[in-house]
Every structure is written in structure tokens, then in C-alpha cells.
Amino acid sequence: MPNHTSILKDKTILIAGAGLAGSLLACYFAPLGCRVLVLERRGDPRAKGFVGGRSINLALSARGIDGLEGVGLADRVLAGAIPMRKRVMHSTSGELTDQPYSANPEDAINSVSRSGLNLTLLEAADEHPGVEIRFNQRVLECDFDAPSVTTLDEASGQQSVERADLVIGADGAFSAIRMAMQVSGRFNFSQDYLEHGYKELMIPPAADCGVDPDLHDGFALEPNALHIWPRGGSMMIALPNLDKTFTCTLFWPYQGEHAFDAVSESKKDIRAFFERHYPDAVPLMPTLADDYLANPIGSLVTVRCWPWQRGGKVALVGDAAHAIVPFYGQGMNAAFEDCRVLHRCIVEQDGDIPAALDEYQRLRKPEAEAIADMALENFVEMRDKVGRPEFLYRKKIEQTLHKAFPGKVEPQYNLVSFSTVPYTRAQQRGRDLAGVIETIAEQLPANGNSDEPGWSEAVRRLGKDLLDA
Amino acid sequence: MPNHTSILKDKTILIAGAGLAGSLLACYFAPLGCRVLVLERRGDPRAKGFVGGRSINLALSARGIDGLEGVGLADRVLAGAIPMRKRVMHSTSGELTDQPYSANPEDAINSVSRSGLNLTLLEAADEHPGVEIRFNQRVLECDFDAPSVTTLDEASGQQSVERADLVIGADGAFSAIRMAMQVSGRFNFSQDYLEHGYKELMIPPAADCGVDPDLHDGFALEPNALHIWPRGGSMMIALPNLDKTFTCTLFWPYQGEHAFDAVSESKKDIRAFFERHYPDAVPLMPTLADDYLANPIGSLVTVRCWPWQRGGKVALVGDAAHAIVPFYGQGMNAAFEDCRVLHRCIVEQDGDIPAALDEYQRLRKPEAEAIADMALENFVEMRDKVGRPEFLYRKKIEQTLHKAFPGKVEPQYNLVSFSTVPYTRAQQRGRDLAGVIETIAEQLPANGNSDEPGWSEAVRRLGKDLLDA
User: Fold this and answer.
1) Minimal Cβ distance to A186: which of B174, B188, B299
2) Euclidean distance between CA atoms B394 and B403, whole angstroms
């Protein structure tokens, strides 16, 4: 291995955006010997004590951890994370159903705080002497030839032009760098909104909502789980936080029966609506009506574009290149994988930036498409299928096969969340496995037999034949 | 019928764009009693003597004529148009094949000059006392609540804010009004570029390229035709102009064998390339190499978006809402149909603008989708299929059926170009007819028999059975 500490010597890398991807990318670039200038539109979160932006809970999994590991930050971040090893489904009658994510008890997705993680990454970037982070910088223009970025300092009102050798748009789903690409000609682009929006609510610690604190280690619900209230076209989920609260998120259509426009602004109506649809959660949410009225409805968008780079000088990473819906918990994980791959391409191309960008987009674009599609599909699974007995029966077949043929059978969810095999491959293997499971379910229909010892054996036998075929 | 001359009394309609759609729309709105303010980014073409912008030849057909007729301008425009009644295909060996557009000799698409048409519409709009047109006005922002538009006068450098009761974005494929919608939340949008670009060339009058002027009434080629040099992945077309020239347009991929990047900047190479692929056209193009080098390569984009209006106050028409590729000759025609439908909705809703916009977008969106898809499909037909015997055989079956069952069988091309039945219906009927033709072609394969009298009879007999089924 060559020494990489100077392959970008005397170069300036300009990163638009000091969010999760931008901060991590700064950590990847700094050791290559370049100057890294990070321009962030928002104020310094270290001064204000918080980071704005989207606040949907983050589930850190294998790809994200791998991305952090590349700059030695995985342990620091995981120390402040809560592992979630299963889904717990809450039915309308309050019945709970567990669905483990994996046969391997080590496998978990990790609930982390977006603002805390952003702070960790920002501080890690700032520790590098070659990294400079400027806040309150609104990107006005991007010149793809120079390349350079014109920014407005929103504190001083001053405009300035920053030249660089490489400009990276890590500025999120509404990227200003991508917007400049969009009007620069021959740039394919789409943004597609769901008919659903999201709104966050809160479950306080057990003691604050009348739950015995000894029951769940101070939490109001089992903490090492992702809780889902699947309701067909709508759902609520809850993820645990270190302070023993849960952040709940409603994913509801804007219009319809079980929808944002179906609930009036009367606190009585709000509580009545939740009593009807989420009765077991209502006692756990003493500030329900106030939170519902105070918190905004966020929209959910999928962004696809191509190319991801211009002239070997300007490129996009993370949400700027491929914003996805949050239902596979992969937005941040995919972005961190982008960072690690982009770094690897630059090292492998020995600092030849145009060659590296070309390779980077070639490798990553199909992966981004695959996870975008899987994330959309997983919404249907979470809000609807997980509540159905026929789905749970298929999950049981899947887990039985997974245990019986551990190398051969790996569910799509596990490949996406607990491995770093390419998303495209996870998608393909998922489709293949779904075919096998469907055939077994047809030949071995559910009839209360799945607790008999003979059932598992029959699944294994059918599975072996189908997998060998 | 109520009197409509005052249904928009005391209202201000602001139209962004004084191109084809914007100018025509001003003519539609002015008689409703409102003030119409048209803001155009370019300079006044009456001062400069020309209109800039895209210059692909325009083929005015039934929908466009219908749109002009609604404001009494059809005859004026058609007086300066050249009817084209057939396609003439030019093979690589210089052989010509005619393909009439219709069994009805009255049916024609009409070659018109974009700049001349724009001037006519602009002057017609300006004749209305209630219409004011301002040039050199760049739209900087659009406030959807007011609604209002902030513009920069590029001549004086002055910014101003214009309030209105309705803002219409008629500002083309790269619409600034649509761009404002795009960042306003929950606006679905896509722009997709073809791998092909276009470049314009010129065939002078017969006398200037050594063709006998008596042969084609002073033209170098038959004037009442759209000429096509289909070459598989690439093509050239030529449309006649009033001054007895033809405007040729290359539609080539950017990269490949028969592509823009396959031709060097040497005049000798350019001529050699055309000698190889378009030998019969080379003698007709004395300025070929100079034109090739001087003229830019334009890109070809399909734009789709939704919704087309915001809050009942701001709406899109024409290319701003649905830019399409030019291969069905329907971009302008669809835009003019938008104008007529929008006017009708406002009249039918008795001046209730929000209700009219809602109805307008509900009616037009599926039509725009249909013609966008058919335009993409027609590119394959023009550049590739029209050169193949099996296609020409199917066209012959189609025309035989069309003649035999005139009310029942109307080819898709005819419904799109020579009628105003909805695009969606033309698309569906086209698909149905294609199925019938395919069945006949299978049962009656081409074997040089299509000139025998018995062949037509067999087609009619099979057609009758299939159509009655």
C-alpha cells in the first residue's frame, strides 16, 4: 500500500454542507494532505447547542458503522447508541408481537440521535488542522469550470467566491449544488413526493407516564426494539433515546380517513383520534395533543439524478445525490457508504480526481437506485404487511431457513442492515428468497402448525430442495 | 351563453413569457375584461427583427389551428404556412419512398416559422388595449401567496414586484415559475434528457444548389413533404420554408458511431461523413461544413411535473408544464390546446380562478403524459422503423383499413395531428389498431403481393372481422 498522506497535497476540497455526510467526508479527506473547506448554511451547532434539519430518528447499521470505522469513529458513536434487535408490533387492541431482525442475537440496528451524531462528526472534522468549517454560508452559485462556489454569509451579508480543486455537494435533499447542476444542461433529475407526511411526537421516561420504571429499565416500552403501530395505509413508529424517552413518528397520508387532514385542531379530537387508532400509546403520551399541534408535518421525497459529477470537478454525495424515504433506515447509512467509496476511489486513482469521480458515480448510482426502491417497498411492509398473519408466517419461514442455511439464506433486511454486500445484490437475493418462501408457503400453508417440530423440518426439507435447484 | 367580456373585470393576469404560449394566452385573456401583463425575458423581437429561442421547425396541426381559431388567428397564420402531406424517406443510396400522412388529401401538417408565428401572436396580443408586454424582464422570484413575481429589468438593472390575481408560467421548458414551485415543497418533478442532441443545417433554394428550379417550384426538394433520412439510431429531417429553403435538423446521439462526437472539426471530415450517410443531401447543402461548425448542438428534454398550479393563484402552461421531445411535432400544438382549455375552464367556472385551475390541470395532465410518451415513441419510428420494409408494409395495411373503414379506423398519427380528440384517446385507439394490423400482417405476410387487387380485399375482410370482434 502506498502512503496516501499526500496524494491530494496542495489541493483544496470544498464541501458544501456540514451535516452528517459533509462532516464525515471532511474526516476522510483531511488525511490525504489537502485543505478542506466546509461551508454550512446553518449556524454553528456548538454555539447553539443543537443542529437543525430533519430529525427523523436515525438507525445506524452495518454500512454506516463501516463508514465511521474508516475514520476511526465507530466506537465513539456506538457508545451513545441503543441497539434495537427486533420489531415490536402494536395492534389496535394493544396486543404486542415480536419480530426479531435476525437469528443472530448480535445483529442490531442502532438508534442514535441525529444532532448528537452530527456534533460528534463536526468536532472530529474540526480536530484536523487542514479542515476549516464556516457557518451561515448560503451557496448562491456554483461554477463548474473553475470550480468555485459563490456564497452569501448570512451573518455579515458579505458575498464571497471560493475556488477549489474539487467541490462536493453534501448539502442534502434540497442541495444547492445539485440545483446548479439541474440548470446546467443534460442533467437528469426527478423528485417524487409521497402522499404521506411525517410528524414527531414523544413518549417520556416510564416514571413520567405512570409505567413501572423497573419494567423496561426506566423506559415506558421495551427499549431494545423498534416499535411499530401498523395501520394499513398509515403507521406510527417509536425509537428509543438515551434519555429513556422514545421519539414517535407518525407516517400518515396528508388526505384521507387516517390522515393529517382528518384530525381537527381541537385537543379533544386529537386525543379521541389516537384513542381510536393507537389506544395503547395514549397513556404513554401525556403531551400528545400539545406535541401534535406544535410539531410540523414534514414531507417525504425520493430524489434521483444523473450524472453525479460535472467535469471531474464537482460531485454529489448522500441525500444530495439520492435522497430516499426513511423506511429502511438507510439514508444516512448509504451516505456514509458513499463517503467511504469516494475516498477509496481517490486513493485507488492515486489522487486523480476526475478518474475517481467517474469511478465513484459508476459504482454508487446503481446502489442508490436499489436502496431507493427497497426503501419505498419497505414502507408498505412496515405500515401494512407486518400487521398481517400471512406476512408473519412468511417471516417465520424466512427465519427458519436463515437458521438452517446460515451461509446460503440471508434475508434481504439482514443483507441491507447487517452486512455491506452491495444493495443491488441484497435486492436480487431478496427477490430470489421471496420466491423460495412463497413456494414453501404454498406447499405448507399456515394452519396453526408452525409450532410443531415437524413443521420446521418440513420447511428445511422443502427449502433445501428449492435452494439446490 | 353568458357574456364573458367582464368575468375577469378588475383582475390582473400576469403571464411570464411572451413566447408562443404566452402571447396566445394573452389574446385569450384580454377579452375577458382583465388587465394582462406579459413579462418576457428576451428583448422585443419587433425591435431586433427576430425572436431567439429554440428554432426546431414547427409543424402546426389540428390542435394548434384550433387554439389559434379560438382567438381568430388561424387563417392569418395558415396563410404563411406550407402544408406537408406526406413523409418522403431518403435511403442511403438516395432512393425516395413516399408515405402519405392520410388517405384524406386535405390532411396536412403545416410548416411554419417559429419567429414569424411568435411575431404574429405578439402583435395580436399587443393590439388588445388591456395587454401590456414588457421585455428584458428576468423572473427572480414568485410568491405563491400574493401572488406576485419579482423581476429584474436586465436593461435598467431595476428590480420590481408585480402583484396579480393570477400568475401563469408560460416561460418554457426551463420555466422560472416552475423552478420556484420545485422548491416550494411537495412538487413532483422530472427532467429527462435524450442521449441525442440536435443541430440545424440548411438547404438553399433550387437555383443555389444546382437543382432545376422548375422541378419543385423553386425548392431543391419536393416542398409539400417532411423529408426524413432515417439511419437507425440517428436521422436527419428537412422541413420547407416560405423562402424556398429547407431547414434540416440532425438528431444524433452525442456519443457513438453515427454521432456528434464521431465527426471532427475538419471541414473535409464533415463532408466525408455526410457523403457516407446522407449522400443525396450533400449536393443540396453548399454551406454544409460551415453550418455544421457554426451551429450549436441543442439538447432534447422531457419535463413532467405535478401539480400544475399552486393555491389557485399560479399555474403552468405549455412547455413549462410538460416540455416534450419534438418527434410528433406536437409541442406547440399541445401548448395551444392548453391555452384554449384554460380559457374554457375560466369561462365555464364563470371567472372563479381557483376552480378553473383545478379543472384545467385535471383535464390536461393525462393528455400531456400521453403526448410526451407518444413523442418519445415516434422518435424510434422516424429514425428507424420508417426505413424498414416491414414497417412500410404495416403502414400500407393501416392506410388500406383507413380507406375501407373511414369512421372506424383512424391511425394514431391522424388522430393526433388531424383531429382534436384527446391525446389519451388517440394513444389508446392507436394501440388497439396496432394489434389489429399486427394480426393481419401475421395472417397475410408481405411477399410482394400488396399490389395485387386480391390483397386489399383480403385486408378489408380480415380487418372487418377483427374490428367487429
Assistant:
1) B299
2) 14
Partners of residue B186 in chain A, C-beta under 8 Å: 193, 299
User: Is B190 an 8 Å CB contact of chain A?
Assistant: yes
- Name the closest residue on chain B to residue A304, using Cα atoms: B190
Range of B371's domain? 12-80+113-191+302-378
Residues A215 and A226 in one domain: yes
Residue pairs between chains A and B whose CB atoms are closer than 8 Å:
34
Enumerate residues 6+ apart whose C-beta is below 8 A from B326.
B56, B198, B300, B375
Q: Which three cell numbers stand for residue A388?
A: 398481517
> What is the C-alpha to C-alpha distance for residues B21 and B368, in angstroms, rounded to an integer?
15
- Rounded to whole angstroms, the Cα distance separating A111 from A238 reads 10
B contact test, residue of A54, A184, A186 with most B CBs within 10 A: A186
- Considering just the CA atoms, what is the radius of gyration of chain A in Å? 23
The total of other beta-carbon atoms located within 10 Å of residue B214's CB is 8
Give the minimum alpha-carbon distance from A341 to chain B in angstroms, rounded to a whole number. 27
Nearest-CA distance from A413 to chain B in Å?
Answer: 29
Amino acid at B38: V
Give the predicted TM-score (pTM) of the model: 0.91
8 Å CB contact of B193 and A182: no
Give how far B43 is from chain A: nearest CA, Å. Answer: 22
Q: Where are the alpha helices (DSSP H) in A324-452?
A: 331-348, 353-383, 389-404, 412-418, 423-443
Instruction: Give how many domains chain B has, as a whole number.
Output: 3
Q: Does B184 touch chain A if contact means CB atoms closer than 8 Å?
A: no
Angle B365-B370-B374 (CA atoms, 0-180°, nearest 5)? 150
By Cβ distance, the residue of A185, A188, A191 closest to B192 is A188
Q: Is the peptide bond before A307 cis (omega within 30 degrees of 0)?
A: yes
For residue B205, say if its preceding peptide bond is cis, omega within 30 degrees of 0. Answer: no
Contact A188 B191 (CB under 8 A): yes
Amino acid at A303: V
Of B192, B469, B217, nearest to B305 by C-alpha is B192
Q: At what angle do helices A453-468 and A423-443 cross, to 10 degrees?
A: 120
| Bridging pattern class, strands A12-16 and A188-203 | unpaired
Tell me what ipTM this predicted complex has.
Answer: 0.88
Per-residue pLDDT tens listing for chain B (469 residues): 345 778 999 999 999 999 999 999 999 999 999 999 999 999 998 886 554 444 567 999 999 999 999 999 999 999 999 999 999 999 999 999 998 888 788 899 999 999 899 999 999 999 999 999 999 999 999 999 999 999 999 999 999 999 999 999 999 999 999 999 999 889 999 999 999 999 999 999 999 999 999 999 999 999 999 999 999 999 999 999 999 999 999 999 999 999 999 999 999 999 999 999 999 999 999 999 999 999 999 999 999 999 999 999 999 999 999 999 999 999 999 999 999 999 999 999 999 999 999 999 999 999 999 999 999 999 988 888 888 889 989 999 998 999 899 888 999 999 999 999 999 999 999 999 999 999 999 999 888 777 788 899 999 999 999 988 7
The last residue of one of the domains, among A284, A299, A314, is: A299
Strands (E), A170-275: 188-203, 225-231, 234-240, 246-253
One-letter identity of residue A341? V
Q: Do both B146 and B45 map to the same domain?
A: yes
Residue B100 domain-assigned (yes or no): no
Q: Residue B101 in contact with residue B87, Cβ under 8 Å?
A: yes
Q: Which one-letter amino acid corresponds to residue A36? A: V
Among B358, B378, B398, the domain boundary falls at B378
Cell of residue B118, nine digits: 411568435
Q: Which residue of B has its CA nearest to A192?
A: B188
Contact A186 B193 (CB under 8 A): yes
Residue of chain A whose alpha carbon sits nearest to that of B192? A188
Looking at the fold, whether B354 and B245 belong to one and the same domain comes out as: no
Q: Residue A101 falls within a domain, yes or no?
A: no
